Amino acid sequence: MDDAATAKKERDPARWGRRAWSLLSAVRARAPLVQCITNLVSMDIAANALLAAGASPAMVHSLREVPDFTPRCDAVYVNVGTLSEDWLPSMRAAASAGRPWVLDPVAAAASGFRMEACLELLALRPAVVRGNASEILALANRSVAASSNFKGADSSHESVDALEAAKALALSTGSVVAVSGAVDFITNGEQVVGVSNGVPMMQKITATGCAVTALIAAFVAIEPSDALVAAACALAIFGLAGEIGMESSKGPASLRMHLIDTLYCLDEETVTSRVKLSLRP
């Protein structure tokens, strides 16, 4: 197959839909065990999103448990949202345990301590780094935010603003980098996949970004050799669940409930026909 034919195949929406369904089906069949060292705000929604998708969450963060527990997991999810000096050694140890792992650098630019911790973790080669545009820009530039434009865990940039930074970060770290936004961009530094599923109301539910990163970890557990595809499909599946959940919702609280229910109920026809994934030129 020549390059033009390969590129056309990779941009085929139906093919991406089948890949997304195949990965979700595999998660449901295999129930990968995902160790989550995640922030206190996100534990509930991350665990419930993993369960609804068919994975098995484990909120294990004690350093003393890592040597026994982490090697038996299928993937590890590390989230620095409520970072503390006590948890950082556990994060480093779990990331070094030889399992595929995913990093969520929440508010990476909030402080020098947080930025240093994120850079230390990046050096341990996560399979995927998933953040909003401001977080990815901060990591790529290794910079702490100025007070005038800092919004905590919220982004002050659009995802497209961080695309070149994401490419550079992917090339320098060897990790797939996913930038969340109105359109999610996922890149390995050379290829870029765009995901257009989701609804703005999802931004009004705390820790939805954390929950989708947990789902990425479950998909990476199934497809560790192609983290680009795993991350893109997880983002599309989660965004699609938000779209369908929004149809029955009145606001953020009910959307949270319907999103998790929809994630549990997604079927092949819905996934293959409604995920919006494409390989970008």
Automatic annotation (TrEMBL):
The keyword Nucleotide-binding applies. Keywords: ATP-binding, Kinase, Magnesium, Metal-binding, Nucleotide-binding, Thiamine biosynthesis, Transferase. SUPFAM superfamilies: Ribokinase-like. InterPro entries: Hyethyz_kinase, Ribokinase-like. Its EC number is 2.7.1.50. NCBIfam families: PRK09355.1. Thiazole kinase involved in thiamine salvage pathway. This is Hydroxyethylthiazole kinase. It comes from Urochloa decumbens.
